[in-house]
């Protein structure tokens, strides 16, 4: 399964978001640290979920990282988050 799909599936399962976009931005980082041939190293996640509403920005980021799990986060070089409730 592609990393993009894994991210989408885990976030969908954890938060049932109203809005969820998982964008592979790896090609923008070609030649930079952490970039690999084939991409799937640099991601942008845009998500809106009611469960995130009462959380602080830091708590939201921690919740997303927790939902993704250390195995998946360990395979990602960069993860930009635009998350809200």
UniProtKB/TrEMBL annotation:
GO terms for biological process: iron-sulfur cluster assembly. It comes from the Bacteria. InterPro entries: BolA, BolA-like_sf. This is BolA family transcriptional regulator. It comes from Cereibacter changlensis. Belongs to the BolA/IbaG family.
